[in-house]
Amino acid sequence: MAYSLVHKFFTMLPDSKISRLLAHQITGLADVMEQHNGRGKVSKVIHSFADYTRQMIRLGRMAEVKHCFTMAAVLYHNGSALLKNAIESVYIYTLSPVLQRPAKDLLPATLRRIRTHHLQTAGI
Predict the structure, then answer these.
(1) Would you say 57 and 98 are in contact if contact means Cβ atoms under 8 Å apart?
(2) HSE (CB half, 13 Å, CA atoms) of 29?
(3) Distance in angstroms (rounded) separating the CA atoms of residues 56 and 97
(4) Would you state the torsion angle of the CA atoms of residues 82, 46, 74, 115, taken in this order, to the nearest 10 degrees?
(5) What average pLDDT does the segment 16-40 reach?
(6) Most distant CA pair in the chain: distance in Å?
(7) Average of pLDDT values for 52-74?
(8) How far apart are CA 60 and CA 82, in angstroms?
């Protein structure tokens, strides 16, 4: 349900608004995203987002982790090719080493497919 609500409001998200959206939706990221302030590179914004998510996983704050994963899926679904690439190559790659149960089970299907693809191609 949260996905559909967020999805409804944020279709076709411009890259310049990613940091503001994340700051608004995830209060723990507000200060970090303020530093990016719409002018940060997409990959740096997503790296900061991944670092925050990793910290929440380590702290066991699974409700916040699920919220982060939902936002990442929304960004992936509604973002530019550049944003999608950043979610795939920065967000998922950064989180893969810490994705164990129960966090791994919280991944939305889209992110789970991306992670599986990364794991399969890394083994080649």
Answers:
(1) yes
(2) 29
(3) 14
(4) 90
(5) 86
(6) 40
(7) 94
(8) 30
Alpha helices in 1-124 (DSSP H): 2-9, 18-25, 30-36, 42-59, 62-78, 81-86, 93-95, 109-122
pLDDT value for 49 = 96
The Cβ of residue 71 has, within 10 Å, a number of other Cβ atoms equal to 21
pTM, two decimals, is 0.79
Q: Which is more confidently placed, 74 or 107?
A: 74
Quote the distance between the C-alpha of residue 1 and its chain's center: 18
What distance in Å separates the CA atoms of residue 54 and residue 48, rounded to the nearest whole number? Answer: 10
The confidence band for 39, taking pLDDT boundaries of 50, 70 and 90, is: low
Amino acid identity of residue 19, one-letter, is S
Give the pair of three-digit tokens for residue 78.
């509604």
User: CA 67 to CA 118: how far, in whole Å?
Assistant: 22
